[in-house]
């Protein structure tokens, strides 16, 4: 199997996706949060793979998505503290 040149709209720029994942993660703690993220990441990796995205690129997309989600959580937490 060879790598593909297909690229998708960056996951970290999909605001509804980022915010949705962030809200769910904020409602969970510990292993529940870890399990949710692992399941979400696996589902997204499968979807990207089925769309023809190369495995390395798919993994980078999911990693960048995680950073965006964590950034969204941090921004929301900072805003709550500022109130």
Description:
The protein is mainly alpha-helical and 83 residues long. It has one domain (11-82). It has three helices and no strands. It has helices at 15-26, 30-50, 55-82. The longest helix is centred in the last third of the chain and has 28 residues, at 55-82.
Outline of the structure:
By secondary structure, this protein is an all-alpha fold. 73% of the residues lie in helices and 0% in strands.
Number of strands: 0
Classification by helices and strands: mainly alpha
What is the beta-strand fraction? under 5%
Please tell me the overall pLDDT.
91
Pfam families: DUF6074 (PF19551)
Organism: Mesorhizobium tianshanense
Protein name: TetR family transcriptional regulator
InterPro entries: DUF6074
Topology:
Blueprint: H1 15-26, H2 30-50, H3 55-82
Helix pairs in contact: 1-2, 1-3, 2-3
Which features would summarize this protein structure in a list?
83 residues, 73% helix, globular, TetR family transcriptional regulator, DUF6074
């Amino acid at each position: 199997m060879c790598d593909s040149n297909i690229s998708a709209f960056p996951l970290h720029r999909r605001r509804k996706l980022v915010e949705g994942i962030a809200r769910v993660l904020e409602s969970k703690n510990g292993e529940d949060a870890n399990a949710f993220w692992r399941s979400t990441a696996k589902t997204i990796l499968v979807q990207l793979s089925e769309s023809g995205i190369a495995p390395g690129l798919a993994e980078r997309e999911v990693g960048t998505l995680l950073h965006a989600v964590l950034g969204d959580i941090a921004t929301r937490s900072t805003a709550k503290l500022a109130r």
